[in-house]
Amino acid sequence: MAETMTRDQRLVLWIAVLASFVSFLDGTVVNVALPAIADELGGGLTTQQWVVDAYLVTLGALILVAGSLSDVFGRIRVIVVGLIGFGVTSVAIALAPTAEFLIVTRALQGVAGALLVPSSLALITANFRGPAQARAIGIWTAATTVALIAGPVLGGLSVDFLSWRLVFLINVVPIGVTLWLLAVLRQRDVRRPGAAVDWIGALLCTIGLGGAVFGLIEGQRLGWGSPLIVTTLVVGVLAFAGFIVRQALARDPMMPLSLFRVRNFWTGNVATAFIYAAIALNGLVVVVYLQEGAGLSATVAGLASLPVTILMILLSSRIGALAGKWGPRLFMTTGPLVMAVAAALLLTVNADFDYWWQVLPSMVVFGLGLAITVAPLTAAILGAIDPSRSGIASAINNAVARVAGLIAIAMLAVIVGGALDLRGFHQAAIVTAVLMAIGGIVSFLGIRNPPKETADAPPVVEKSEDI
CA 149, 106, 286 angle in degrees (round to 5)? Predict the structure, then answer.
């Protein structure tokens, strides 16, 4: 790596990795702490849902507008603001006196997190070209995967031996290092002339997601016929419909609808919605049930999914190479179906709990399916779009994945029947398996393998009328 990169490129790559690591780490570390948070601050399952979804609402709503902010104010400035905001809100969450205060600060943390991932990738694409860019993105992906290992383990250790509050302070060190590297870089920021931020679109998207999520989470408690629930659901649906209309009419839309005329792009995003909803549901349910239902410590619960991450690290690059050779369709079909089998294996969990025979087989099969799926899915979606629009295409796909997880977590109480007991755990496993199976079927029916490339021919990119 050092031989092929300049000093500035190495710094840029480290900055991009660490900035994204902060956001990814927070997504994996918080699940382990949910039972301890609910025990101390109260609120039960509803508090646990909101701790996760308050972050995802603002993150999912604003991750698209972050690209526009980078164009208007500069990528480096946006990353700096995101890092400082993430650090400040992390400290505020660690000091939270009530569940309500924690949920509000989690929402503010989601705003900061939305600035980090798209801007980090944009920083890479601005400083690398050709094969070097693909390699840099590959290194970024592999390095940020470490967060999947570090999050549950560090979170579990903090909860068991110190306090759940320290879970949210883990981010402070990588934030400080990243800010220092940005100061060392001294790179001149780049802004796109004439770029504008679609604030109306961002507001409509936030109201749409917020209204829908509030209704789905609180509907179980207040009753689905409650005027408050009906009103928030209707407002949410109407606002999100307004967001879609706005994207069709805006001069600089956050989500260019023309991209969805590309078959592999729209099909891949539909598959992403089902697959990542299942991943979010499975990740939350397993780690919480292992603590509250099976009685495992937070540390052991965090380690329980370690086989998934290990298989991801070992197999992802190899699967990506095979998908490049054979096309993504086979992998995008097979991987989710394998994960559906893994979710079904969790039905073997019973009152006489045994991790090694009841949970570990599911984790191994799930890790295999996830490794088969992720790289081909990303390649199919971004490979279908002209490279000049890969940034917004990546942001859209990231937003789809986050929003899908947000909705799955919002419906958790409905899925498990109000309580995450053994029966609720089995119901969540069934829903996870169904969502994964649908993702595989969508991929089989919709994804098309790109034409074989000759040694000298450039890749063939499927285009819409406006691309």
Answer: 40
